[in-house]
Amino acid sequence: MLKRLLLTGAAGGLGRAIRPHLARFAETVRVSDIADLGAVAPHEEAVRCDLSDAAAVRDLVAGCDGIVHLGGISVEDKFSKIVGANIVGLYNLYEAARAEGQPRILFASSNHTIGFYRQDEHLDAAAPLRPDGLYGVSKCFGEALARMYFEKFGQETALVRIGSCMEKPTNYRMLSTWMSYEDFLALIGCIFRAPRLGCPVIWGVSDNDTRWWDNSAVSYLGWRPRDNAERFRAELEASLPRPAPDAPMALYQGGQFTQDPIFEEK
Ligand code: NAI
Ligand code: 15L
């Protein structure tokens, strides 16, 4: 059991979904976001914080023995927005962790680090990066930064390349990329309980029949995802036309993100 687990990005979609369940892993949960955090439970502490503010992030991390780092820009956006939250913000988090006893970190990386692979390719953690936009590039930076802090200082991080973590798959691609909230929570438990973590890449995906990613390199963590997106196939087929075989949604692992432009600064 952790003493104090920090959850960044607690006001976001994924943060809101897992927040009520984190008392499983820690006596106190410090929830943080730049946005309003809503009602605070008795086992929680709420801290409004902009990840690009180094001094505030140092205070945020102080006293925590684990961090689930979800905060940041989560889709393609202007470079200036991505830089503040995902580049400067990540550096601030790792410098704070270095100064505050090196709490273990779960970094929410993304499948958009490898989005330009085709959907008929199967990947393990050794596959070279193929980001599909500036957002994906920022997650590649995050993985590289975490790896450097591991090699140089022994800071442990789980680099979780999340596929699509939401209540249920909402398109055909997500039958391959979906991860259930329960499987993610089980993964969080394995990451913080492992006697030795290191700095592994972990594919954040449920046990979907049509998944593309191989987690055998991290079997030592004991994570066995239980959900399978296949149970939603009939519902999807009844409600959504299948994309054309040459559409980006059907061709690339990153789906539509491969088609995003470089957004202009204004
Ligand atoms: P989200 O966009 O709903 O939540 C992100 C949160 O970060 C927001 O509440 C936002 O206010 C906060 N944030 C943004 N900039 C900030 C800043 N400068 N300082 C402090 N907080 C800031 O995203 P979601 O879906 O909840 O994803 C959470 C994390 O997981 C993100 O890092 C995302 O990149 C990653 N991820 C999520 C996937 C998913 O399927 N939900 C898939 C792959 C990665
Ligand atoms: C992500 O990285 C995004 O944060 C999330 O909003 C989803 O779009 C997900 O990837 C996905 O690829 O489905």
Automatic annotation (TrEMBL):
Belongs to the NAD(P)-dependent epimerase/dehydratase family. Keywords: NAD, Oxidoreductase. It comes from Xanthobacter autotrophicus (strain ATCC BAA-1158 / Py2). Residues 6-162 form the NAD-dependent epimerase/dehydratase domain. GO terms for molecular function: oxidoreductase activity. It comes from the Bacteria. This is NAD-dependent epimerase/dehydratase. InterPro entries: Epimerase_deHydtase, NAD(P)-bd_dom_sf.
